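Pipeline run #58 for the internal structure catalog. This entry was flagged by the ingest filter as a single-chain record with no existing model, so it goes straight to prediction. Upstream metadata was stripped on purpose; only the residue string is passed forward. Reviewer on rotation: M.T. Logging verbosity set to normal.
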Amino acid sequence: MNYLIDTHLAIWALFDDPRLSQAARRILDASENRFQFSVCSIWEIAIKRRLNRACFQHDPREVRRHLIRNGCTELTIQSEHVVEVDSLPLIHKDPFDRILIAQAMVEGIILLTADPVIARYPGPILKV
């Protein structure tokens, strides 16, 4: 399976955070699965780190390097992803999460998340 990893799961997996569920660990450890991360997640980490948000204290450069080193491929933001955001219902107001949802929809890959609000969207989303 192909997955797009949301920002929190990426951080939790890379830094062995206890908030990472066993279900997420099983998916992330399965050798047959392929993973992508969005440049949006790196952007989110950079912005929220500067705002001193507790969950975003890791260096975005380090996170990106670790993701690539662990075999994740980088998904850039394309205009069709941005346009797809316009079709999303206003369930979640976080622009970073909304672009991740749109990217998963456009690319036809499963967005892997722990966020119950994101999981309320229709489309290829798996809450773990």
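catalog note: Residues 2-127 form a domain with the Rossmann fold fold (CATH 3.40.50.1010).
catalog note: The chain has six helices and five strands.
status: ready for reviewer M.T.
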